[in-house]
Amino acid sequence: MKPGGRVVRMPQPPQKVSFIQDPRYQQTVQAYEAGLRALQERKFDRAKSLFEKVVAGLSKELADRASMHLNICNQNLNRAGTTFKSPEEHYDYAVSLSNLGDYENARSHLEKLQKQHPKADYVLYGLAALDALEGRSMDAMKHLDEAIRLNPANRIQARNDSDFQTLFDDPRFTELLYPETAGDSYGGRSRAE
Predict the structure, then answer these.
(1) Does domain 87-181 have CATH number 1.25.40.10?
(2) Structural domain spans, the chain
(3) pTM, whole model, 2 decimals?
(4) Which residue from 157, 79, 91, 80 is spatially nearest to 120, judged by alpha carbons?
(5) Which residues are CB-neighbours of 163 under 8 A, at least 6 positions away?
């Protein structure tokens, strides 16, 4: 206290807004999180644009992480635009997409292949497997029937293919895979014989 009873207060410096409380930083974090979700959903175009915003944002730490994810997006986008040396190579790529759970892009590639090579039994087989994985049993059996008609060896392959697991209990599927036992249990003869 000063003589005379007055209290002297020292001026306080202006309070700085915390970096974490900065709305621009919050937007960067939200873009990063949305980018991660898009990447997990294999929406590489969307993820790429979000990660580009993060790289340009305020946080060096988030920018470094986003750069790594941005590289993953670019690699996948470049691979998607790849030209294939053969229909079989294109088919293998579509199957790899299916194995990763990217059914939408796998279907797009298989349908493109089917248009280019309508008599390719392996493409029809791939569509059948994809249909089964997506729970489209009628489409799966239709495509598998066509694949078997073009190449009877597909019947044997489908018997042990776990992609058709959802159809194993369906009598129509069993009939398609085991036509020799369809309809009876008397070795192909009716009871009346």
Answers:
(1) yes
(2) 19-80, 87-181
(3) 0.55
(4) 91
(5) 129, 130, 132, 133
